[in-house]
Every structure is written in C-alpha cells, then in structure tokens.
Amino acid sequence: MAGRIRVVVAKPGLDGHDRGVKVVARALRDAGMEVIYTGLHQTPEQIVRTAIQEDAAAIGLSILSGAHMTLFARLFEVLREEGAEDIVVFGGGIIPEADIPELAKMGVARIFTPGSTTQEIVEWVRSAVPATV
C-alpha cells in the first residue's frame, strides 16, 4: 500500500512574509499530502533536520528576501553532509528568471515564480515527489 507524499515547507532566513507559503502548504494538504510547515526564520540546518526527522520526500523553500542563491546552496551542503541527497528540493518566491538555471545546476528541481497557481504546484509535486511507504 502506497503512502502519502510528505513535504516540508519552510521560510529560511530573515524573510518575515509567510502568507504565500501558508497558501501553498494548505493547497498541498488539501490535495492529500502530509505537510510540515517549519515556520519563519529557519536555518538550512533546521530545515534539513526537520525533513530527516519527518521522513519527508521533499523540501519546498519560500524565499522573498533575495538570499535564494546562498540559502539553497547551504541547504544542499547540509543535505550532502547528512546523506539526504534523495530529498527533492523545490522553491518559490521572488527569484529572478536569470538565477533559475544556476539553481537547477545546484539541484533545485523546480522554481515557482509569482503567478504560479496552487494547482500547478500540486500537480508538479504529485508528478515529481515519491510517496512515503
């Protein structure tokens, strides 16, 4: 019997605007996924620790602060240090189109920019993230 998709959604860094990430978390939950929202001002270390403890298959970062390159890079460093590279990483927020190819090289599976719908996010997560047994 297959399980449900488990996703950690997080607001790393100093960004204090969390309405969008809460909307996404609710959409994923309403679509039948298990969602763990870590809250504001999380470090990459805290986010990875939560994902490992919760046996999450994915981490979704919401970043509006402009620190996306640094925060994603550190998240991937911590994932490697913890042997958790199998966790799918995606993100959204105010991220310039010009930065998306570099984020993809780091390992970010998908970036959702302003205007992305919750349906688009739900469909992508369903297609890209494995369910937990």
UniProtKB/TrEMBL annotation:
Record Gene3D superfamilies:
Cobalamin-binding domain (3.40.50.280)
Give the required cofactors.
adenosylcob(III)alamin
Show the InterPro entries listed in the entry: Acid_CoA_mut_C, Cobalamin-bd, Cobalamin-bd_sf
Keyword annotations for this protein, in alphabetical order, are: Cobalamin, Cobalt, Isomerase, Metal-binding
UniProt KW Disulfide bond keyword: no
Q: Which domain of life is it from?
A: Bacteria
Pfam families registered for this protein in UniProt: B12-binding
PROSITE patterns to which the protein is assigned, alphabetical: B12_BINDING (PS51332)
A GO MF annotation of the entry reads: metal ion binding
Q: Does the keyword Isomerase apply?
A: yes
Which residue ranges does the record assign to the B12-binding domain?
A: 4-132
What PANTHER family does its record include?
COENZYME B12-DEPENDENT MUTASE (PTHR48101:SF3), METHYLMALONYL-COA MUTASE, MITOCHONDRIAL-RELATED (PTHR48101)
Write down what this protein is called: Methylmalonyl-CoA mutase
Q: Which organism is it from?
A: Microbispora catharanthi
